[in-house]
Every structure is written in C-alpha cells, then in structure tokens.
Amino acid sequence: MEAPPLIRDDALLRATRRRRLVSRVVAHAALILGVLIVAFPIWMTLVGSTHDSGTIGRGEVPLLPGTHAVENYATAWGKGGGVMRTTPASLMLWNSLLMAVLIAVGKIAISILSAYAVVFFRFPGRMAAFWAIFITLMLPVEVRIIPTFQVIVDLNLGNTWAGLVIPLIASATATLLFRQFFLTIPDEFVEAAKIDGAGPLRFLKDVVLPLSLTNIAALFVILFIYGWNQYLWPLLIINDRSMETIVVGLSKMIGRGDSQNDWNTIMATAVLALLPPVLVVALMQRWFVRGLTETEK
C-alpha cells in the first residue's frame, strides 16, 4: 500500500535536514582542521618563547606556556638574541614598520597617479604606456635584482632609506586595480567637474580620491604586508645594523653548524614580528573586505 503524500513529504524533509546537518558538520570540521594546521606552529612559537633556552635545547617541545616570558621578551626587545647578538627587536621592528609604510604609501601614490593619467587623459601612446607598466608584472625585484643593485651602488644609495624603498615602490598590480576602478566612474562626474571649473588636480582630490578610499585601504593592507615581509632586497642593500629589518634579523639570529641557538629569544622575536601585520589586518579588516568586495561606489 502506498504511503500517503503527507508521510512521504515528512520523510523527505527529515532526510533533507539530515543531509544538510551532515554537510555542515563536515564543512565545519574541515575549517577547524585547517585553522589548527595553520595555528599550531604559531602556538608552538608562542609557547617556546615562554620557556628557557635549556628546555628547547634539550629537544623538549612543551605544549603549555612556561614562566620565562617576561625575561625572554625583555631580552629580545632590548638586547637582541642569537649567537651574534643581533640588533634589538625594538629597533628592527621600527625599521620594518617604516619600510613597510613607505613602500605601501609610495606604491599607492604612484599607482593612483599613473592609473589616473591613463584613464582620464588622452595622449599619444597612452595604452602603450599602460601595457609597458603591466608587463613589469613579469619582472619582480628578484628577477632584476642584479641591475637594480648595480644602479643603487652607482648612485651611492646603499645603506639609505632611498635605496631600500625606491626600487620597491612601483606596482603594476596596484596600477591595474586602480585603472579598473577609475573606468567605473561615470562620465557625468567628469562633465560636472568641468562645468564647475575643476581642473585635473581638483577632480582627483575632490572626486576620485574620496571614491577610492576603500580600494586604498584594501591595497594598503596587502602592500604593507608585502613590504614587511621583504627579505632579499634589504639583505643585499643594508649592511648597517642600525637599519636592519626584523625579517633579516631573524635569519641572522639562527646560528649555523653546531652553534647553540637561543631558541627562546628567537621565538620571542618571531612573535614580536607577527604583531604589526596582525594589528594592521585586524584594525583595517572591515575596510579591507569592503575594498575587495564592493562594486557599487
């Protein structure tokens, strides 16, 4: 005897709910597993920074924090660590912060101006200039590092902030993103600005920049982290320890061969190196998401 339609519908509804519950459980389990895989090394670094050097030197890997956190972080902050007693973390953090901010601001400023010129001005070779900028995506600093280094040496810009920052501030990616956004600005805005007597600089200041704030914020986060994580170029161009960045300093803290490492101080410095990028992402998270997802301005 065939079941009534009401009973069949109820059974189908329960089966659908079970499938949805199972899919949600599997999805959440996969997400939790991914978070644990990413977070576990960070947790071990944080825990290792709270123990003495002997505990880690003996190969013990504790899972709970120890009692030497204040001592380890004070040493890393004020004295530095490692076999060669590198630059204090406080100075390296300041150097990295300054370099990252200069690179991010410089990239955004140059990219806005170049994209603005390509979109709102009509001049011979306009698209050729844009494609010349775009092609540089295939030439990152690691590819052109030898000629770039030679130019910096010839200009006597070694161990200077100009030599550290200027070769890294051009960004074809940011130029492309700003160009694509500027193309969405209605032509009526341009015509209204011309009727009001606004020149190119005033139109840029009063119309284009306010509309681009979320894009600027999103790019600032990405470019700040890019500048913060620079390793190869600062390693080549900076020999003065007073200008050493935290990423380069961390690599120098680790000894080679049979040398005994102060892993507790090294891990404390690594935790300190994580804080500025994490703070930038946390403080600008809403702007970052809006800049990447909003299409209507």
UniProtKB/TrEMBL annotation:
Compartment(s) of residence: Cell inner membrane; Cell membrane
Keywords from the UniProt entry: Cell inner membrane, Cell membrane, Membrane, Transmembrane, Transmembrane helix, Transport
Keyword Zinc applies: no
Topology term for the membrane: Multi-pass membrane protein
InterPro entries: MetI-like, MetI-like_sf
An individual GO BP term: transmembrane transport
Superkingdom of origin: Bacteria
GO CC, alphabetical: plasma membrane
Domain ABC transmembrane type-1: residue ranges: 93-284
Membrane-spanning parts: 21-43, 97-121, 128-149, 161-182, 203-226, 266-289
Tagged with keyword Ion transport: no
Gene3D superfamilies per the UniProt record, alphabetical: MetI-like
One Pfam family this sequence matches: BPD_transp_1
Protein task: Part of the ABC transporter complex UgpBAEC involved in sn-glycerol-3-phosphate (G3P) import. Probably responsible for the translocation of the substrate across the membrane.
Family per similarity comment: Belongs to the binding-protein-dependent transport system permease family.
Subunit record text: The complex is composed of two ATP-binding proteins (UgpC), two transmembrane proteins (UgpA and UgpE) and a solute-binding protein (UgpB).
Name used for this protein in its record: sn-glycerol-3-phosphate transport system permease protein UgpE
Annotated source species: Roseomonas indoligenes
